Amino acid sequence: MGRCLLLLAFFSACAVAQAQIEELHLQETGSAVVLAHSTFAHGYRHGYEEGYHTGNTDINMGRPPRARLTELRDLKVGYSSIFGPKKVFEQGFQAGLKAGYKDGYLGRHFRAVETLRGLAASLEFSSLPADPKHAYFDQGFGSGYTNGFEHGGSDHASSPQIDFHLVDCAPFHPARQSDLPAERSYCEGYRRGYALGHADGFVLRPEGSQLEASK
Q: Where are the alpha helices (DSSP H) in 61-134?
């Protein structure tokens, strides 16, 4: 019985290792570290790629732009349980899908890799002791993206690019007092997510709003 359990654990470990090897995004130079830290960011990377390809195909085929994400079928979500919570991955995927589709349809450059590389600056693969599985970093990234997207889409934003180092971290509300040391990790994720969301909120605004903001 003990031997069977050991074999099962061995094959499970091999399966996880193989899945990580096959996931090319986790090997991308410069951006892999932020994808490893954040399930949301990893899902975003997958969604952006799918959206960009679909948008580029649609414009080249002379199709009108799709108004709803529900119109996009047969997309390769590419989720694996080793990436983290499925719901978080899917939230990131949907965010990336919207941004990628519009960039692809309008013929803009594929900016996801370059942007994520910038957001990975000063990050190390090793985790902080207070956040060993990057859970708070990921939570902060998703929350920051939502807030950044809202601000980037408002009339107060005049440019898509902001320095994430200058972003004020939102109030941190841990479930337990013992989690307070994880605030640093949360804020590291929040600032980066905010910068990404801000850029997407800006580029997804109606063209008229962007022109008005640039005057």
A: 86-105, 112-119
Q: How many CB atoms lie within 10 A of CB 13?
A: 10
Crossing angle, helix 86-105 and helix 39-60, to 10 degrees?
30
- Tens of pLDDT along 164-201? 999 999 888 877 877 888 999 999 999 999 999 999 99
pLDDT, residue 207, reads: 63
- Contact (Cβ atoms closer than 8 angstroms) between residue 52 and residue 101: yes
CB 95 within 8 A of CB 51: no
Residue whose structure tokens are 């090897």: 21
Q: What is the pLDDT of residue 92?
A: 97
Domain chopping of the chain, boundaries: 30-207
Handedness of CA 101, 102, 108, 114 (dihedral sign): negative
Helices (H) and strands (E) in the chain, counts: 8, 0
- Looking at residues 111-122, what average pLDDT do you find? 94
Residues constituting the chain: 215
From the centroid of its chain, how far is CA 149?
A: 12
DSSP one-letter code for 84: S
Please tell me the distance from the alpha carbon of residue 56 to that of residue 122, in angstroms, as a whole number: 33
